[in-house]
Amino acid sequence: MKAIIPVAGAGTRLRPLTYTQPKPLIPVAGKSILSFILDPLIEQGITEYLFILGYLGEKIKTFVEQNYPDLSVSYIYQEERLGSAHALWIGRTFFKDADEVIVAFGDAIIDVDFSLFMHSPNSCIAIKRVTDPREFGVVEIGSNNLISKVVEKPSIPKSNKAMVGIYRIKEVTQLIEALEYNIENNIHTADEFPLTDAIMRMISNGIPFSAIEVDNWFNCGKKEVLLETNALFLDREGYASVDLPPYDNTIIIHPVSIGKKCKLTNSIIGPHVTIGDNVEINQSILSNSIIGNYSKLNEIILKKSVVGNDVSLSSAGQSLSIGDNTEIDFGHQ
Q1: Which end of the chain is more exposed for a tag (fewer CB within 10 A), N or C?
Q2: What is the pTM of this model?
Q3: Which superfamily is assigned to 242-329 in CATH?
């Protein structure tokens, strides 16, 4: 079995954060979004991975090589963002001889019982019921409890079961044939070639697909969802920092995740704060926020904020979403 991880998207809804940092590397409760995707796949024994890169792809490549050095990893660039099916098509040489593949999009955190997912007798798609399915690909279930139809972003949905971005496909040859057919015949949706259309062709050709409902789906495409997800995981066992070193005249209100080599002085930190490595915070109050690596905060009051890497902030009391390599001073003239 091989895993395909498409991470070519630009993460436009999280700008300015994603101008200089790819969305899969944004930290949540001390882990990158990408690590939430890779770790359960590794636990299932998958060791061969293809990353389909695009926007800021070198940063993802560097992250994987530094944090997962034992994996067998290949990379390919999707120069034109023509959709998820196109991304798989350009990487087909990697998986054409696989007995089956896992496709896991690298931009969301998902709770799913992977043992059920991996041992399904059929190809399967992870789903979650949503309030407004018009923004997602959706599945319809037939009388035999198999998926009868998949539709990409339907204007009038007949189902509220959204596809959440993880697929296990056993019929690899038929997958490649469906990708090829749609691309060569220019069968697309909204100017792209989505994987949804290729799967629909497979279903039409008699390939059975089952739906596996996930427990939770955290589509971290907006600051508010990102912060809610951060808080939820910090509340879970195993994510918040424990045995923290003493910080100078600083109160820690758990749960928090604080990275390595941080200098915290005269501050109140927490609850639900994630702080990256090598961060300096002085005379500040932070709650329900995410702070990137190498940032410096002085005389700041922040809540419900996301701050990127290498940011310098002084004298503010705001709710912010700030990109990397930024310096802002809210001091009075």
Answers
A1: C
A2: 0.86
A3: Hexapeptide repeat proteins (2.160.10.10)
